[in-house]
Amino acid sequence: MLGLxxxxxxxNLYQSCWHGAPGLxxxxxxxxxxxxxxxxxxxxxxxxEYWKIMALLYYPAFYYPLxxxxxxxxxxxxxxxxxxxxxxxxxxxxxxxxxxQSPKIYRYYSLLSYLPVIFCLMVLSLWYPALxxxxxxxxxxxxxxxxxxxxxxxxxxxxxxEFLGFPLVTSHPSACNPEARMIDWLTSDFGIAGFQVxxxxxxxxxxxxxxxxxxxxxxxxxxxxNIQIIRAGMTKEITVLxxxxxxxxxxxxxxxxxxxxxxxxxxxxxxxxxxxxxVCSLVISCLLTFCMLMRSLVMHRMNLQSLxxxxxxxxxxxxxxLRPSQQSLVCWMSxxxxxxxxxxxxxxxxxxxxxxxxxxxxxxxAIPLRSELLAPSGWEWAWNDSAVSFTLSPPYRRALYIxxxxxxxxxxxxxxxxxxxxxxxxxxxxxxxxxxxxxxxLNRSVELFDPGxxxxxxxxxxxxxxxxxxxxxxxxxxxxxxxxxxxxxxKPTDVEEGIQLMQxxxxxxxxxxSKQSRARWCLAYTLLNNPSxxxxxxxxxxxxxxxxxxxxxxxx
Length: 556
Description:
Elements: H1 2-13, H2 45-55, H3 58-68, H4 75-98, H5 109-113, H6 115-139, H7 146-163, H8 178-187, H9 199-232, H10 236-244, H11 261-309, H12 326-333, H13 335-371, H14 376-387, H15 397-406, H16 408-432, H17 451-466, H18 469-478, H19 513-529
């Protein structure tokens, strides 16, 4: 904030500094995040710029408490979240309903750009009341009773068995229901029981999706209104010019001005086709980007599960040490930014490629076929030619060699065409998968030269080394050591997500200790046999004295 203030002061007091370069905040007069102000006089412009600097604190000051209310896991937090989400949602809807149009870019751009924010606020407005109602209906009747505790122990046991690679045997009452099986099949790629996707990964994908929407909206409002204006303002004089250049087919070969109604309708039809091609290419690009992001989530889950089991070579081509470092920490911090930037850039590349392809298909195939400018006999000739099958059965090997030598120049030309096709396929594949950081666009031997994939590898190192579920369970068991009387300790049956545990006030004595013992045995067996933990295990101490105890004084 101090640096921004100094930039404003430098701009106002020292105009010749830095050769008159404008300050950081010299942009057109724009409204503040919550409300809009009328254009102030010249003397109040510095104050308005300071207000804009303070407006940068709007999002962390208002939105961070809105998200933090869910982490408290208390009724008061849920109640505060309800109030904040409702207030934010009402203010945004009221503001956009009061002034839906804006003069910048497009009259409805401001309204359309705020749709993701309004949608997220509406989801939170429904989610927080649901959490509040569930807290009243479950906690008062003892939802964390013996049944839930036993279920938590079963989840921990299944978690340990899953890390070791053992098959999980689950029985669902709806297994025979075809609708339930269809839902399970549709959701099997995006989530499984006993596995929690990291929060930073979910936030990065969410920000990438919102960024894709904003970029697609900018591309849409920057092209479609302009092409509509051009189509509405098309005149006969411009049509005559296009006919004379040979861009528009016309019965009047010389392009003499006259009755050009048919040619004018053709020009408007071509512009409409161009508009449709642009919209279709943009929709295809957005759908492919969204599908690649969902596939990236599936790959994240598979890679994390493999690294949890210690199968490093199943994820990386070379063996890696899953230890945090300075570079890993920096990459972990910039992972969400890289994901958003790569996704937006991939969307732009896909839009250009698909727009060119759709325009070529429309104006070279669809429109000529519709106008009957392309002779049907050409298609019949191409079909008959492709249906002919050449069979080569040389009686001798020498004849095959001679024929290969004679066809060498022709094969060179065919190879050039195949090389061009290979370049096209490679470019299309890389453009589609550009937003996926979990795969490298380079060869396996040089994949670390890919900055996106290198950032993803370091991100996995931090996630696995700092949030391993077995490590969380082991740290919890370390906290369950016998304590002096009068001190409250956590109960070993308080389980959340199979590993992260919650505090309870009352524990029923009817809980079977066999399940606790079985869960602890699975955890201990996992700690002993997990390959990712073996390099980090210390060797046997040479001194037989127990670690942490003082040596007894020497006897006289």
